[in-house]
């Protein structure tokens, strides 16, 4: 526990927010978005529409300057360990047969967002689509324009009051307010508290935890919640139940930033588990314009790591052979900057691809149902066995 | 509100538990399971193993008497509106080459469950599988035997302390305890409380609600939670986010039984929405032995019903054409006892299949983002427009 305390202290003394793009003096310019208040979004939209109106009155018609979100305009910046968007953009003209539809959709989405921000309510992308099916035709079109609008206005999608559906749950040594309600996550039974879809309603985080335990799957979360693991090792336990959703990513980042705690990742020992860590840390490609707000820097890979399989003598029968697809995914990941920058992570993935073996967190159950909470994690934490 | 109050009163005055199989004097015998305490499960397992030991000592070898869970042994009983299991069973002999493996697996599962019930901890099916991968080979085998063991011991799967992963959330006028923690669902922000995987840790439900609103999807749940709909219409709002999971079904049933409140279903107007209501009400085929504990009788279909599409003038663009598969599913459902027994439900489904149109709850957003919470539901409830 002394070592975790030291790590925790180091984390709290460190300047946590140095990793801004502006500090780096990079050769490119970048497009990044920020969390804006509903009022600021309203103002930005009104500016945008006023400019269009002036342009029309001046006889020039109108168009929107839309940042490009294509992969050619994306880049991984190792210094900040995130995928970000370069500053290429193009004008979406109304008076152009190839862009008239998209310009009309953009205008309509701006109007809808304006309404949401004035009313201060949140909706899903699906709700947004249904407000004008005739124009949008399919949800892919309104979704894409929504991301364009984020980039145009320079704000996160959450600032637009369009939220993703929630999957995540949290339990442990965390108290926060949600829409005015005080939530104590040590008093959330074994099921935990559902992470809300709208992060802007979350505030006043307090905690006496020493670390955050980020768990890939529901089953491991359940085990730890039922055993009230956070009472023995003061921590906050969080899971998105598989693929990280936007709400859980925002919540994790907010915890890390507000509480200044180290984050330990507990995932399956397979390329997919590593992919999940990478989404939490470096972001996903299609939301690279918002990577700053969605990513949590410096997650430690606690386990289950490929080297754990022999170290903890996971029985042969509990190891699964990797499929051809798994091996291909693993090999592709070896080429990714995200892995290459860390020799220890690289070595682990290399070992996985070489042994062609994977294992789930549940494989630890072969030593007893509570091996995870009573042996594996305490040992890992005491031995500082994270990379 | 007066009408809902009357319905609520009727519900509370009614004998809620009259629908037992035993009361019906039916020609078949049935196999049903009950919630047993961990101690009782331990006793049942010990009895079972003692009988096996005696049989071995008497020179007869051993076997287990396992109820058949095949569809030939399942029947829908209209009087209680559930699928139940008839009493056919067969002996699983150890000294028979065709059943030796399954008998060994059954013995091992009994041993593992014994251990779980003594320790009073809960695990997932996946955890159970991993405790002896060599014997079980694949999870399908341990899962199937787990259901056999439920039937053999005459207890629910939850009583075995093997739980499903949770997906559901609840918000509104409900207070309950979970593993000793007091949870007030009016103070759960906008994200709500995650429904716990283990219903046996849930107790002391209290509520001043007039009804329970069962919502198919997350987006509608979010809308109602953010608008704090339960403050205007005193209710409890619950969703499993799509396909009902076991934890949410158990939780809904417990609310209905303990609080004696009417339940209103809000689902998409498509065969899948109706299917979801049917799973909550009548159970799913593969868990028919436990239909009593998993089903919630008498859910009212509030909406979105096929007749609502014209009544509420849902724009043409927000209605979707049914696919061939949808139409086939709809036609098949018209043949099901569950639908046939209620002429109003039958008429609605017939209309859906005839018009070949479906619509999601979100289609209501075409009238404004808050149309669902501010117009549609209040109108439905005031006009008693449920069937």
From TrEMBL, chains A, B:
GO cellular component, as recorded: DNA topoisomerase type II (double strand cut, ATP-hydrolyzing) complex; nuclear chromosome
Classification via InterPro entries: Spo11/TopoVI_A, Spo11/TopoVI_A_N, Spo11/TopoVI_A_sf, Topo_VI_alpha, TopoVI_A, TOPRIM_Topo6A/Spo11, WH-like_DNA-bd_sf
Residues in Spo11/DNA topoisomerase VI subunit A N-terminal domain copies: 101-162
Every Type II DNA topoisomerase VI subunit A all-beta domain range: 166-202
Catalytic reaction(s) noted: ATP-dependent breakage, passage and rejoining of double-stranded DNA
EC number: 5.6.2.2
Protein name per UniProt: DNA topoisomerase 6 subunit A
Gene name tied to this protein: TOP6A
